[in-house]
Design goal:
This protein is of the alpha+beta class. It has a domain at 25-61. 18% of the residues lie in helices and 13% in strands. It is built from one helix and four strands; from the N terminus they run αββββ. The chain has one helix at residues 10-20, and strands at residues 29-30, 37-38, 49-50, 53-54. The longest helix has 11 residues, at 10-20. The N and C termini lie far apart (70 Å).
Length: 61
Amino acid sequence: MAVPKRHVSKTRRDKRRGSSWTLEAPAIVKCAHCGSYTAPHKVCASCGWYDGKQVVATEED
């Protein structure tokens, strides 16, 4: 049975645990056409534009 040779303090233990469980914010960019926020390299859900061209027809048109 494995037994630690030295006591590990709470600070040292928590520093080790905290570094691998950090969450990252999702990438969000502004649409160049309408200004709403969307994921990069995806068609804008509100206006249907991508890379300066309208690729999806929306109900607003």
